[in-house]
């Protein structure tokens, strides 16, 4: 079990997401509806829906909004969303994975390709970068959940595989198969987390500085601004002094 790792890049992204709260609510709502449609509309009996609801609560989405998103799954007018993954390269040779939920594959593909090409990147083919990532389960907790030692002990007891902690919070890694079992085991130990989801963890990181770092963040912002894009993963490491320049 590893106890420490860089968290600053993730927190920079979270800060950017906080500025897009209305867009974020829309994406969380879409994930809730899709999860409810794919399984039972009960978070206790549907692991993906439970994870989506926890993520929504962590972003202070009102209970009524969450319930409406669940109820929408059983309606006749619900859109049919398709899950799509795009892979490409950003400034500095950074590998990027984009996950989307869309009701119009052509629209989303065009928007993602445009975001890459306008911001110093290029869209690759399926599998062009995912070989450099591990598919794992990720459970996130804020720093208020406890100090590094407390979270590490809880993670070991719950059956997690790895922990990364920093001043911004804690990221607890599991196998894909054990994600929701570990998430449930952590709740009586640490409380409800900020989310539990499948993630792409890079096996190596690429340090990016200067103009390339600024352009990379513009690319990620452009991708995250798209309504169809749910998550953006990358193997970048932007040093703290560079992040401060970016504000």
> What is the strand tally?
10
Broad structural category: alpha+beta
Helix content: 40-55%
Shape: globular
By DSSP (H or I, 4+ residues per run), the number of helices equals 9
Write the CATH architecture name of the domain at 13-72: Orthogonal Bundle
Secondary structure topology:
Elements: H1 8-18, H2 21-38, H3 47-58, H4 63-72, E1 82-89, E2 95-102, H5 105-118, E3 122-123, E4 133-142, H6 148-158, E5 162-166, E6 169-174, H7 179-190, E7 195-202, E8 206-207, H8 210-225, E9 229-234, E10 236-237, H9 240-246
Parallel strand pairs: 8-10
Antiparallel strand pairs: 1-2, 1-3, 2-9, 4-6, 4-7, 5-6
Helix pairs in contact: 2-3, 2-4, 6-7
Protein described:
- Residues 81-235 form the TACO1/YebC-like second and third domain.
- One of its GO terms (molecular function) is DNA binding.
- Belongs to the TACO1 family.
- By secondary structure, this protein is an alpha+beta fold.
- It has a domain at 13-72: Orthogonal Bundle (Arc Repressor Mutant, subunit A).
- The chain has helices spanning 8-18, 21-38, 47-58, 63-72, 105-118, 148-158, 179-190, 210-225, 240-246, and strands at 82-89, 95-102, 122-123, 133-142, 162-166, 169-174, 195-202, 206-207, 229-234, 236-237.
- The chain has a 4-stranded antiparallel sheet. The protein has a 4-stranded antiparallel sheet with strand order 5-6-4-7. Strands 8-10 form a two-stranded parallel sheet.
- A hairpin with a 2-residue loop joins strand 5 (162-166) and strand 6 (169-174).
- The chain starts with 7 loop residues before the first helix and ends with a helix.
């Amino acid at each position: 079990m590893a106890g420490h790792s860089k968290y600053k890049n993730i927190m920079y992204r979270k800060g950017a997401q906080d500025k897009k709260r209305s867009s974020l609510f829309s994406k969380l709502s879409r994930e809730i509806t899709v999860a409810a449609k794919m399984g039972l509309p009960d978070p206790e009996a549907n692991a993906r829906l439970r994870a989506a609801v926890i993520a929504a609560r962590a972003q202070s989405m009102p209970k009524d909004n969450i319930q409406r998103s669940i109820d929408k799954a059983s309606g006749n007018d619900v859109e049919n969303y398709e899950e799509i993954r795009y892979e490409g390269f950003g400034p500095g040779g950074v590998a990027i994975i984009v996950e989307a939920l869309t009701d119009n594959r052509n629209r989303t593909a065009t928007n993602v390709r445009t975001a890459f090409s306008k911001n110093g990147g290029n869209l690759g083919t399926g599998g062009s970068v995912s070989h450099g990532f591990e598919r794992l389960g990720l459970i996130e907790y804020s720093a208020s959940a406890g100090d590094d030692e407390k979270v590490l002990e809880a993670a070991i007891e719950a059956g997690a595989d790895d922990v990364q902690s920093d001043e911004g919070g804690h990221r607890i890694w599991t196998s894909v198969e054990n994600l929701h079992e570990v998430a449930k085991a952590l709740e009586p130990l640490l409380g409800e987390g900020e989310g539990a989801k499948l993630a792409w963890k890079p096996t190596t990181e690429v340090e990016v500085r200067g103009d390339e770092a600024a352009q990379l963040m513009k690319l990620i912002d452009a991708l995250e601004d798209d309504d169809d894009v749910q998550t953006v993963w990358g193997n970048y490491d932007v040093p703290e002094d560079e992040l401060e320049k970016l504000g």
